[in-house]
Amino acid sequence: MNKFLWIGILIAFGVASAAAQSPTPVATPASTPVPQTQMPVMRPGLSNLARRSTSVREPAELRQMLLQRYALPLYRKPGGRELRVLAPDPALSARYAELLTRRDSGIFKLVRDAGCAENARVLNASEECLKYQFPGAGNSFSFRTESYRIRHLADLTYEAGSFLMPGVHMYGLMVDLGDVPLEPVDLQTRGVRYLTALQPTNDYAKAVEMDKQAEAGIWQDGFIYRRGLPAADGHTYVSRSIAYQGRVMKAIPGAQYNELEFDKRRDVITAFKVVQTDPDGAVTIVWTQLSNIESIKLRNPVKDSTGPLADKPRTRSKFTGSAF
After folding, report:
1. Quick check: is 140 in a domain?
2. Beta bridge pairs of residue 105
3. Which of 229, 247, 246 lies closest to 238 in space, CA to CA?
4. What are the tens digits of pLDDT across the range 103-116?
């Protein structure tokens, strides 16, 4: 009996020792799903920032972010540091100091168009273009916004020794008054009266016809009025820009927008004079505004301005700009 008791005790002791040496099982943790807001939606054409944002932003907020990132840089005004390369001669500013005290007047320089602004979204890396890395590249200016602008929103472009008015959805006409003083020019000056009396139309077909006439040239009272004229040192010009209100639709990655909402659409008459021509062909211009009124809205039967008055590739010409 004692023999069997000792055998049982030994067996029990061995089982207990084996159990003590076995590792304690560790519970496998349950997998935690990644919140959906942390999983970016990959959409072609958007920046990483935009990709990360599409799943957490409201559509209106995302659209505004895209406009600020892709569209606004095309319409910004250049800063003071950028403008230094185009600073007019201080002596010229002093010479026209009295005129420059007028409201809506100024002085600026235009450089010849070297193709720096052919595509507003693509940087031309040539040595000359790197000096003008802002909208308009130094050869296009808007009297309505009083700043350099991209070509198709400008009132005046300097190209191949000529002034052009290539603005989109805009009727442009100018006259060369000759080598005369700028200061006394007003709305009733001979040669200006025709521009003053010109009545714009909101009819699309009539506007197209007027634009064709402006491109061909209009003879009146001994002056020729055109959308483009040769630039002559010392000459005074008067231009009328009727920037119609309306729609010119553009697209950026992820959104569409009306480009004209980024512009000041006005009907302005401006007198300007070429006061200096540099050896490299750049011209310095002094200007004063004679009239600035609200522009009318063009009744465009073509959806989103896709017809003859819409923005489109420009046909270069010595004296002409382009249709609206």
Report:
1. yes
2. 288
3. 229
4. 999 999 999 876 66
